[in-house]
Specification:
Helix content is 80%, strand content 0%. By secondary structure, the chain is an all-alpha fold.
Length: 244
């Protein structure tokens, strides 16, 4: 089996695993589950993490050039091998983007709009969960509820930053920095998409105006061609009559 064949087969199962992980993680963080419930959720997340680890091993084994693939995918190894940075496990949800790529429309604008909307919503949700996970039990924390976390994530990703809520822990600030850079990227895509749309509309308007301006000229040319053809016939008839 080739690596590409494996990726095609594993895409949907990985997406389902990512959704299970997201649901368990969100339930644990937002619900503040304790006792046996927390143990079950933690076990479920470790099982999904094990599936991600197996996926990494399979990709490495099936790669044509394992050394090259390993060097170019060090971030995959970090996601799997660094359990200390628990929020990084949510990066596996990018599997949803590859599935989304096959379900959007044929036009580039449809893909861009879908990607931007989906990416922004996913970043806000993941960022809110990640920062709430590390902030809600910290001393002097400003972000204590999921609502607070979502509001903070929205103001951060849009680069507004009111300053009413902010992370106080080192990992929370790392999450904030990643969300800020992601927000800049998303806004850049939005700006580029709008600019592309405006340019296309201007081009379409210009072409339509040019076509409407050319219509009278084309009509006149058609009349001239008809008149020239008629004159040629008359000249030919005169020549025939003189010859006879």
């Amino acid at each position: 089996m080739t690596q590409q064949r494996y990726r095609d087969l594993a895409e949907w199962p990985l997406m389902g695993t990512a959704l299970v992980f997201l649901a368990a993680y969100a339930w644990q963080v937002v619900g503040r589950v304790e006792g046996s419930g927390a143990a079950w959720l933690e076990t479920l997340m470790w099982l999904t993490w094990g599936i991600f680890a197996l996926d990494y091993a399979a990709n490495l084994w099936l790669a044509d050039n394992r050394r090259r693939w390993f060097l170019w995918n060090l971030h995959e190894l970090l996601i799997v091998a660094l359990p200390f940075f628990r929020p990084l496990r949510l990066l596996r949800l990018v599997t949803l983007i590859s599935v989304l790529h096959r379900t959007v429309g044929e036009t580039l604008r449809g893909r861009v709009v879908t990607y931007v909307a989906g990416s922004a919503a996913l970043l806000v949700f993941v960022g809110a969960l990640a920062v709430l996970d590390v902030e809600q039990t910290a001393p002097d924390a400003k972000i204590l509820t999921f609502g607070d976390a979502v509001w903070w994530a929205v103001t951060t990703i849009t680069t507004v930053g009111y300053g009413d809520m902010y992370p106080v822990t080192p990992i929370g600030r790392v999450v904030a920095a990643a969300l800020m850079m992601s927000g800049i990227a998303v806004l850049g895509v939005v700006t580029a998409s709008i600019a592309s749309w405006l340019v296309q509309r201007v081009e379409e308007s210009t072409e339509a105006a040019a076509e409407s301006a050319e219509e009278p000229v084309r009509a006149e040319l058609a009349d001239l061609v008809s008149e020239i053809a008629a004159l040629r016939r008359e000249v030919a008839e005169l020549k025939e009559s003189r010859a006879s």
